[in-house]
Amino acid sequence: MRLIFDLGLPNQGGIFVDVDHFRFTDAAGQEHGVRVDDDPLTAGPVMGLLNRRVTTAVVQDRKLTLTFDTGARIVCPPHPQYEAWAAGVGRRWWSLALPTRRNRGGGIHP
Prior knowledge:
- The chain is mainly beta.
- It has one domain (about 1-10, about 15-95).
- The protein has strands spanning about 1-5, 15-20, 20-25, 30-35, 55-60, 65-70, 75, 85-90, 90-95.
- It has a 5-stranded antiparallel sheet with strand order 4-3-7-6-5, with no helix packed on it.
- A hairpin with a 2-residue loop joins strand 8 and strand 9 (about 90-95).
């Protein structure tokens, strides 16, 4: 699932974050497990974030946490076998959630 954030500046590309398996806590505090590749319908509750503002974005121990102005939250922990999330601006992107070397299994990671 690609989340795109508008920076609100003219001629400025948006920031994007790609996530697949993550926990979403909605504004009412209800937690949802989201597995986009396995079951795309689990992403439905995330649509409530349309036109919402990110208030904090934190990466700690390869875990991404995004908090929104409604109190909703996305938490994407690292995955032992693949990139759990990636972020970028325009054509440049970064993945700070690569699996540890011993768990990569020979996959190619940019």
